[in-house]
Automatic annotation (TrEMBL):
<comment type="subunit">
    <text>Homotetramer. Adopts an asymmetrical dimer of dimers functional form.</text>
</comment>
<keyword id="KW-0496">Mitochondrion</keyword>
<feature type="repeat" description="Solcar">
    <location>
        <begin position="213"/>
        <end position="298"/>
    </location>
</feature>
<dbReference type="InterPro" id="IPR002067">
    <property type="entry name" value="MCP"/>
</dbReference>
<dbReference type="Pfam" id="PF00153">
    <property type="entry name" value="Mito_carr"/>
</dbReference>
<feature type="repeat" description="Solcar">
    <location>
        <begin position="11"/>
        <end position="107"/>
    </location>
</feature>
<dbReference type="GO" id="GO:0005743">
    <property type="term" value="C:mitochondrial inner membrane"/>
</dbReference>
<feature type="repeat" description="Solcar">
    <location>
        <begin position="115"/>
        <end position="204"/>
    </location>
</feature>
<dbReference type="GO" id="GO:0055085">
    <property type="term" value="P:transmembrane transport"/>
</dbReference>
<keyword id="KW-0677">Repeat</keyword>
<protein>
    <recommendedName>
        <fullName>Dicarboxylate carrier UCP2</fullName>
    </recommendedName>
</protein>
<comment type="similarity">
    <text>Belongs to the mitochondrial carrier (TC 2.A.29) family.</text>
</comment>
<dbReference type="InterPro" id="IPR018108">
    <property type="entry name" value="MCP_transmembrane"/>
</dbReference>
<keyword id="KW-0813">Transport</keyword>
<dbReference type="InterPro" id="IPR023395">
    <property type="entry name" value="MCP_dom_sf"/>
</dbReference>
<keyword id="KW-0812">Transmembrane</keyword>
<comment type="function">
    <text>Antiporter that exports dicarboxylate intermediates of the Krebs cycle in exchange for phosphate plus a proton across the inner membrane of mitochondria, a process driven by mitochondrial motive force with an overall impact on glycolysis, glutaminolysis and glutathione-dependent redox balance. Continuous export of oxaloacetate and related four-carbon dicarboxylates from mitochondrial matrix into the cytosol negatively regulates the oxidation of acetyl-CoA substrates via the Krebs cycle, lowering the ATP/ADP ratio and reactive oxygen species (ROS) production.</text>
</comment>
């Protein structure tokens, strides 16, 4: 393969799988405080039960108000509460939903050069559902850590592995898959919007010769994908967070959680935490996709060098 550059050879499924998981972890390290602020804002206003004291009396106002309040009351480390579970989630979750997207898309097109919107949507739904089925316990633990107040003696979870054991003991193994339904719905929507929008924007920019397949193109495509995804996915994301963090028996199901939100807090409740969601998804998409594209090229260049 002498004379070939990394960009001349399509990346293998293994390269995409490893690259997606690594890039997602790097993106999470940068954006995790925004994700934690989003969770705190989403659960605020929910009825507090004795078994679910994670929300506490603290009132959060806005993205940076939430972050500053958490730092003041709980310390800077509280912004990264649940990071271990978050990284476990990203390594397993993103590897499947992003790393396998192109392969599944090719499966639906049956090798055809023409890739329609239907094939893209089907691929996004498929890999999103597969990722949730694999990584749901890590998502439950991440949300529980982010929701609990780190200061004081009321902490339910004191370590990642202990949290898995506690949830399994108190709620059964089904508790680790709590919220799988809304999470599959949420991630099918997120995956379709995020990957398909990124795909379409990037294709449009390249075909119209407005940009080359380089960093500015990846940045623009990722930012657009993050904005579209936040608008579409916010309502189901709030329901997913509320239901995952709820005490046992607080809601009979995700639909009951959504109805309770609507009747007690009104339609605006479904867009609680919208700004941190957008800041997080927008910045996460930019860091993730830019890193992913560069990692793919670096890994392929290394493969070409070896062979």
């Amino acid at each position: 393969m002498v004379g070939f550059r990394a960009g001349d050879v399509p990346p293998t499924a293994t390269v995409k799988f490893i690259g997606a998981g690594t890039a997602a972890c790097i993106a999470d390290l940068f954006t995790f405080p925004l994700d934690t602020a989003k969770v705190r804002l989403q659960i605020q206003g929910e009825t507090i039960s004795p078994a679910n004291t994670g929300h506490g009396p603290v009132k959060y106002r806005g993205v940076f108000g939430t972050i500053s309040t958490m730092v003041r009351v709980e310390g800077p480390r509280s912004l990264y509460s649940g990071l271990v579970a978050g990284l476990q989630r990203q390594m397993s979750f993103a590897s499947v939903r992003i790393g396998l997207y192109d392969s599944v898309k090719q499966f639906y097109t049956k090798g055809s050069d023409h890739v329609g919107i239907g094939s893209r949507l089907m691929a996004g739904c498929t890999t999103g559902a597969m990722a949730v089925a694999l990584a749901q316990p890590t998502d439950v633990v991440k949300v529980r850590f982010q929701a609990q107040i780190s200061a004081g003696a009321s902490k339910r979870y004191h370590g990642t592995m202990a949290a898995y054991r506690t949830i399994a003991k108190e709620e059964g193994f089904r508790g680790l898959w709590k919220g799988t339904g809304p999470n599959i719905t949420r991630n099918a929507i997120v995956n379709c919007t995020e990957l398909v929008t990124y795909d379409l924007i990037k294709d449009a920019l390249l075909k119209s010769s407005l940009m080359n397949d380089d960093l500015p193109c990846h940045f623009t495509s990722a930012f657009g994908a993050g904005f579209c995804t936040t608008i579409i996915a916010s309502p189901i994301d709030v329901v997913k967070t509320r239901y995952m963090n709820s005490a046992q028996g607080q809601y009979s199901g995700a639909l009951n959680c959504a109805v309770a939100m609507l009747t007690k807090e009104g339609p605006k409740a479904f867009y609680k935490g919208f700004m941190p969601s957008f800041l997080r998804l927008g910045s996460w998409n930019v860091v993730m996709f830019v890193t992913y594209e560069q990692l793919k090229r670096a890994l392929m260049a290394n493969c070409l060098h070896v062979y």
